[in-house]
Amino acid sequence: MAKIFGFYKIASKTRITLLLILIIMLLASSVVYVQAYHKLKPIYEVETDKKIIALTFDISWGNQTPMPVIEILKENHIKCTFFLSGPWVKQYPDIAKQIQKNGHEIGSHGYRHINLSTLSKAEIKEEVMKAHKNIQEITGIQPKLIRTPNGDYNDNVIEAIHEVNYEAIQWGTDSLDWMNPGVNTIIERVTKKAHPGDIILMHASDTCKQTAEALPVIIKNLKEQGYEFVTVSELLKESSQNK
Question: What does the DSSP assignment read for 65-86?
C-alpha cells in the first residue's frame, strides 16, 4: 500500500507541475496575443459601403512610364495619389510638377529604396525628411502620406513616421505590375480584387513595362462596376466621417 500511495503522491506532484507549466504557457501566449493585437500597422484600406477606391502609383525610377500613365489618367478625368521617391523628384522635376499640375495627390515613397525596418528611429526620420525636403522644393507641397519602400515596416517604422506627422499607407490590392506578369494578369487581379474603400497599388517606374497598357482597361472595367476614383486623402476623410 505504501508503494501505491507513493505512486499516487508522485503523480499528484506531476499533475501540479504540468498545471503550472500550462498556466505559464497560457500567460505567455496571452502576452504574445496582446502584443500582436496592438502592433502598429499602416492603412491598407478604409471601411465603407460606398463604391469608392483610391488608385495609387509608386515611382522611383525612370521617365518613360510616368508620362503615359499621367496622360491616361487625364483622358479618363481621374485623380489619384502618386508616391514619389526623393531622388526621383530631383532627377525628373518636370514630371513631378506635371503630376501636381494635373491635380493628383503627391505622397512620399521615402528616400533610399531600402527597408526602413533595418534602421534606427532617428535614421528612419532622416530618410523621410530628406524625401520631404526634395518634394517640397520641387512641387511646393508638404506631403503627409508615405508608402514605405518595399512596403516594409515594423512598430519602430510606424512610430517614427507618426512622430514626423506622416501617415503610413499600404494597399488592399496589389496589381503585381512590378512583376510584369502580363497585361491580362494585371487587369484581372485589379478588377476582381478591388472592393469598396480599397487602396490599389500600381507603379509608374520604368521597370514596370505593362502598367500603361493595362491601365485603360482597368479604369474602364472598374467604372463599369460602378466605382468612383478618389485620392487616398479623400478616402481617409470618408473613414473619419464613418466613425
Answer: SHHHHHHHHHHTT---EEEE-H
Convert the pLDDT of each residue in 76-129 to its tens digit: 999 999 999 999 999 999 999 999 999 999 999 999 999 999 999 999 999 999
Tell me which DSSP letter residue 102 carries: T
**Domain extents in the chain:** 1-38, 52-242
Residues in the chain: 243
The owner of cell 502598367 is: 211
Q: Which are the catalytic amino acids? A: 58, 203
Q: 52-242: which CATH topology?
A: TIM Barrel (3.20.20)
Global pTM value? 0.84
Q: How confident is the model at residue 28 (pLDDT cuts 50, 70, 90)?
A: very low
Contacts (Cβ under 8 Å, ≥6 apart) of 149: 60, 85, 109, 110, 112, 113, 114, 115, 116
Contact by Cβ (8 Å): 235, 197? yes
Contact (Cβ atoms closer than 8 angstroms) between residue 78 and residue 216: no
Taking residues 179-193, report their average pLDDT: 98
| Gap between the Cα atoms of 202 and 190, Å rounded | 10
